[in-house]
Design goal:
With 153 residues, this protein is of the alpha/beta class. It has a domain at 6-37 and 76-147: 3-Layer(aba) Sandwich (Rossmann fold). Helix 2 crosses helix 3. The protein has helices spanning 18-25, 40-51, 57-78, 93-104, 122-127, 135-147, and strands at 6-12, 31-34, 81-85, 108-112, 130-132.
Length: 153
């Protein structure tokens, strides 16, 4: 009997191509990926596009946040591994929330960020099973989890 693919949720910053690097690097592995909506405008406006316009920006954002939470909660709950990327340019409050939610559910968590975030993310890192600085390291982790293979030198 063939095992089902490893289900990996890719959460976090949306301004670089880190997701594509992981997906491409893992193309030969039995991995299924999911992610939040990375079109910033679509993510911000999904609530009002589906449920109707709001004059007050708070309620506009509130509708979108709740609709996005439906998608995110389902994806994290279904994931075998959650990868959360913290980027350089912006504070990713949503990424921190996703990491905490995944940890609370007992999901296997990989955190991805540069060395300059080590202190700020020390509690998030402590909840993770692994902390990486580069997408290629995440690919190697997935390869090891699935096949027990170490990187070739």
């Amino acid at each position: 009997m063939k095992n089902q693919p490893l289900n990996v949720y890719l959460s976090g910053e949306i301004h670089t191509d880190w997701r594509e690097q992981i997906i491409e690097g893992a193309s030969a592995l039995d991995v299924s990926f999911s992610a939040p909506v990375t079109d910033h405008a679509a993510s911000d406006d999904c609530g009002v596009a589906i449920l109707g316009a709001e004059e007050n920006k708070f309620w506009h954002d509130h509708k979108g946040a709740k609709l996005n939470a439906l998608r995110t909660r389902k994806a994290i709950a279904d994931a075998d591994i959650v990868v959360v990327r913290f980027g350089e340019k912006y504070k990713q409050w949503n990424a921190a929330f996703d990491a905490g939610y995944a940890a609370a559910l007992g999901k296997s968590l990989i955190v991805l960020h540069g060395a300059d975030h080590q202190h700020a993310l020390k509690e998030v890192d402590a909840a993770a099973l692994a902390v990486a600085e580069h997408p290629a390291q995440v690919v190697e982790m997935l390869r090891y989890v699935l096949n027990g293979q170490l990187p070739k030198s």
